[in-house]
Amino acid sequence: MAETHQPRSRLGVSNYVFAVLGAMMFAAAIFIITVLEDMRIERKQRSQLISMTNSFVSVFAQNRGENAPVPATFRRLGIEHFSNSNIMDNSETRTTVRMPGLPGLELATVEQNERLRQIIRDFQETGNFVPIEEHRLESGRLIGRTIYPSVANNQSCVECHNRIFDSEIFKLDDVMGAFIVESDLSPHALRNLKYAIGAFFVALAGFLMLTSRERKRMKEIVLGLRARVRLEKLKREAEEREVFLRSHDSLTGLPNRAMLMDRLDKDMVASKHAPVILALVDVDDFKLVNDELGHAAGDALLIEIANRLQHIAKSANGLAARLGGDEFAVTIEPSDDMASPNALGAALKAIFAENFQFEHNRIQPKCSIGISCTSDIIGRSRSELLKAADSALYEAKAKGKNTFQVFNEEIKESIVRRDHLAARLPTAIRTGEISVALQPKLCLETGTLAGFEALARWTCDGERIAPIEFVGIAETIGIIRELDLAVLKAAAEFSVGEKNRNGREVPISANICALHFRAGSLIADVERILNLTGLDPKLLTLEITESVVVENWDRALKTFEALRRWGVRISLDDFGTGYSSLSYLRSLKFEEIKIDREFVVDIATNPDTKFIFDNIVNLAHGLGSTIVVEGIETEVQARIVKAANACVGQGYLFGRPFSVEQAKTFMSALDRMAA
Length: 675
Ligand code: C2E
Ligand code: MG
Ligand code: MG
Description:
- Helix content is 55%, strand content 17%.
- The strands form four sheets. An eight-stranded mixed β-barrel has the order 12-13-15-16-17-18-19-20, surrounded by six helices. A five-stranded mixed sheet has the order 6-7-5-10-11, with helices on both faces.
- The longest helix has 63 residues.
- The protein is rod-shaped.
- The site of one magnesium ion has 4 residues, from β17.
């Protein structure tokens, strides 16, 4: 506030000062001009007075006879007469005339003023008779004066004066004294002063008016200028912010992906041989933090991680960036402290060891880290470095997360392998090289068939590829939808074939990947397969994982409702391994819950597992869902599971995933056993 008031008051004071000074100058000018004019008029009047007297005296002298003496006193009286007459009437100015002369003359008045006496002496000595005009301040009064030498201008003057002195001291043209005609201009000056004072106030008022208008105008200009400056500032800030946002992440303030790419390019060009190290950091289970503690906690965690990463990057002259979501990257120039990818990995892991407090919650951030170094890759390209770090990250996650993995030969080979499989997989799906395996699900109570789970199988160049591997590749290269639908179609054809062959209704389950679900085409895809194969929707169960629900609850609910309207059942696969949130279990009402084999492996030996298992079963019963227990391999496990009241079992004990023909044989065997 103080900042805004100060210039305004400075401006006001200076305006007043200017107004007063201006008015004073104006008044002074008026005063000077009027005084000068008065002086001019008075001077003119004095010279008129003298010339009138001269005319009068010369006429008088002529009348008296050519040589008749006319006393100088006569002149003085003439001047006095004229000055007091109406012709020269001037109520303010008093014009007087003095005639100081030599002592003893009839004009015996001796001039007291030494200066004037000197002037008269000068007239006498120099013979220069030019009248003198002057204006002087004397005893507080302004005096206008004309000094006119009194000259013996004819013989009669000389004779008369010589006679008085009885000597021959005067000659023709001698100065005998002087007429001093004075006007007192003080009353004029006083009047002029009054005018000037009046003029001062009028001018002051005028100037004040002008300055107030000017001030207003100035104020407007200043305000306008200030607004413009502010606007410019805002514009500049907005532009800077835009530039910043183009290269930075708005939440954490870290450089973004584009800036990281620039930095990598520069580092690689700048030092042709020095190694460049890159770490990709992925926050483990970040979704959990968002879901359980809210987005504010998630944001705070990301900011905290960003700060910690930046600290590491700065200490090694590097750069930390946020690539998006919960993915970060750090690139460093190897230094004494952090000379190797392993050292960077250890340093990064260490910064995640410390807890992070958000409100009343203590969060233990966990990250998977993939690290690559230019010295470990072929060629010195940015994309290769990124790809290598990404593969290492993939490995770190596969190793169980919360760890770091440096890119090495093994990973290099797995990349080659993955690239090879990725190139083959699309054709394998299209040509039917991908087959379906059917694993039976048995009712534990009766031992009857509850259905088959359809599992994808791929033998590539004679090698059986694990579904976990090729499903992951299919997800990465964006063909998981095609894979899921190929398996679903094959399973549906099998079920419809059984129905057509011997009227048996065989329920089938197919896995639907989260990515496929996210594509948004699932309802249409299922409808198309149902139409294409003629499968009764009631015989179809779709197995989805918890991530599908967690990612988009609303979409999940809507999709389930649409599928359920046809009679399709929804099964929650691998329950217990993911988020296991009870709230979505209650809301989404799955027809089937599949308890992961993790809870079966040591169910016979670990009471804790048994305890959790029992509770999950009770929970699922409470929700009205069918319970399918995965991974039953032994009789003991089967017994425990059955005793716990779980309804359906799936596992190697009952049957490994079969080919279609084996599945048929299996069903016949079951029929025989039942008979
Ligand atoms: P899943 O859906 O949980 O399938 C069950 C997995 O457990 C199958 O592994 C099955 O062979 C295995 N399994 C069944 N009983 C036992 C047992 O007693 N012991 C052991 N150790 N394992 C048992 P598989 O076929 O290797 O499939 C692995 C995962 O790959 C599946 O887990 C599923 O998530 C995914 N998958 C398989 N086929 C497809 C598919 O067509 N589409 C999608 N999206 N995913 C698929
Ligand atoms: Mg499954
Ligand atoms: Mg499963």
